[in-house]
Amino acid sequence: MTIRIRQAGMADLGTICRLRLQRTTWLAERGWDQWTRQGRGLPIERFARAAGRAVRAGETWIAEIDGEPAGTITINGRADAGLWSPGEIADAVIVHYMIVDVRFSGHGLGPALLAHAAAMARAARRTWVRLDAWTTNTDLHAYYRRAGFRLARMAGPDAPGPSGALFERRADAWLGAPLLTSAQPGRRAG
Fold it and tell me: For the whole model, what pTM was predicted?
């Protein structure tokens, strides 16, 4: 099994939306409201527009296993208002929309995508990889803790959306770890 991470193109937008819909259904079947309308998640149409903007900006990546698209991640230097301070954003890359195809769960894609974000952070001379996770999805919180992230804090009441669990990990924490991808940080995140 070979994991390769490549920059997404507009031809990947359908795959990215399919991954989002698949994972939303998977989560709902387990009792989580993440990404659902009831949970105040972005409707798929708005998600598709946001994902398309990120793809056009060169901020989105596709993970492939043996040539088949198996996951995605968006990495940039922006966060939703009210989550991270300007200083925290300035010294970090922010992870968005990390989604792994359920067929490939357990194959190391999540760690590979997060390691890619760390490589992007180091290439941009940023210290941190930061992300916001769905506030009520405690299984997701546990996943990020197992991946070496720490809960920085829960966003305050002024946070605009349902993802208020703020996690971070130093970008240099991945140094010395075995490389899982053939990813090359090719663009400055920001």
Answer: 0.89
